[in-house]
Amino acid sequence: TEAFLAEIEGADALNAFVHKTPEIALEQAKAADARIAAGDAPALCGMPLGIKDLFCTRGVASQAASKILDGFRPEYESTVSQNLWDAGAVMLGKLNMDEFAMGSSNETSTYGNAVNPWKVDDRQLTPGGSSGGSASAVAADLCMAATGTDTGGSIRQPAAFTGIVGIKPTYGRCSRWGIVAFASSLDQAGPMTRTVRDAAIMLGAMSGHDPKDSTSVDIPVPDFEAMLTGDIRGKTIGIPKEYRMEGMPAEIEKLWSDGAEMLRDAGAEIVEISLPHTKYALPAYYVIAPAEASSNLARYDGVRYGRRARLGQGDGIVEMYEKTRAEGFGKEVQRRVMIGTYVLSAGFYDAYYNRARKVRALIKRDFDEVFAGGVDAILTPATPSAAFGLGEMADADPVAMYLNDVFTVTVNLAGLPGISVPAGLDAQGLPLGLQLIGQPWGEGDLLNTAHVLE
Ligand code: GLN
């Protein structure tokens, strides 16, 4: 713990940690020492972790990287982080992210962007987003592992951009209680780690039914680590033809087919599959996610949490709401609230929101049919490119940024588990990731297959 705290002090340039909690860390580490001495060491005993700023941590600033939550210190602990402390883990601090987890580059954060520890010459790169601080901190060895959350790719894309492992579990595997809500039907927490084994151990600790989240499912949590046998003989891996996008860089195509080759060498059968509704996933996601966000973010009213704008003479409650939300929310968050409110409004509900929900059902059915046909897992690239330069996309057309999520959002829409594993480097020497998509509740098999690709 002391070594990591020292590393963090020397790594301010990465802007990965936005709140450091050395006192808590040293106290938890001491408690972990005592448990080890007493011969009662749980799975994560003494493991120093970073926690994404989206998780509420008792008494510690938890702002979802938003100005509107300035000064907010929750009275409660998220279930997932509590599970980690119960398993003996140590909190080093809170990690940078896009504001309310909306973004793919960590550039919408009120703290400014985190930086990718990987560089090409002097070009500063994004660590991805929204869990950019988590990815940066794990890749730069500032912690053993970190928590992330993934609504449309926010664990898997930053993992791919920084050469680490990130898994989004099946919807309902981890409790969402105490995690600041973005799009409640899509949000899931998961681990970001250096190895698949670490991901298996940490996911086991994070998971489990929680009566405080009615969408968390009461299903046993297997020993994921024990399932890492490396034996995938007889498994069927699907390659979806719709993910072979026009204009995809040749090196991503190559890593994808090399990955398939590795799985075949390990005894899996590789088959081509079709997920015909894939092309509608991104537009459906960018209707459903903002719709849910506009509703979830209605609670930031200047009264219940964090910040309230300075009011002028004669301002009433409406002005208080307007001024607080106008100065407390950043540009991307405001854009999402407006899109969401629009697609939910009476005249447009059927044309947008309802249609997106129907598309979502078709996307889910595509996956159900493929799995019913005997496919165990699906292999795709994690991202359409390697990490891009900071500032390169942020000021461009927002849709260009949304396109980053083209391979990841389908998984959230269908509620499936998905993992990104480091697959190799591109011609510039930057990491690229491969994604494996698994059957519902099949995280153990998924981790085992990913282990073969490591
Ligand atoms: N980049 C996507 C978005 O901005 C995904 C975010 C996420 O998974 N939290 O909505």
Automatic annotation (TrEMBL):
Which InterPro entries would you find in this protein's record?
Amidase (IPR000120), Amidase_CS (IPR020556), Amidase_dom (IPR023631), AS_sf (IPR036928), GatA (IPR004412)
Is Ligase one of the keywords UniProt gives this record? Answer: yes
> Taking every annotated instance into account, which residue ranges of this chain make up the domain Amidase?
1-447
- Please give the start and end residues of each transmembrane region: none
Reactions mediated catalytically: L-glutamyl-tRNA(Gln) + L-glutamine + ATP + H2O = L-glutaminyl-tRNA(Gln) + L-glutamate + ADP + phosphate + H(+)
At the top level, the lineage of the source is Bacteria
Which keywords does the record carry? ATP-binding, Ligase, Nucleotide-binding, Protein biosynthesis
**Active site per UniProt:** 52, 130, 154
Question: Which GO-annotated molecular functions does the record name?
Answer: glutaminyl-tRNA synthase (glutamine-hydrolyzing) activity
Its subunit composition reads: Heterotrimer of A, B and C subunits.
Q: Which family does it belong to?
A: Belongs to the amidase family. GatA subfamily.
Q: What does this protein do?
A: Allows the formation of correctly charged Gln-tRNA(Gln) through the transamidation of misacylated Glu-tRNA(Gln) in organisms which lack glutaminyl-tRNA synthetase. The reaction takes place in the presence of glutamine and ATP through an activated gamma-phospho-Glu-tRNA(Gln).
Protein name per its UniProtKB record: Glutamyl-tRNA(Gln) amidotransferase subunit A
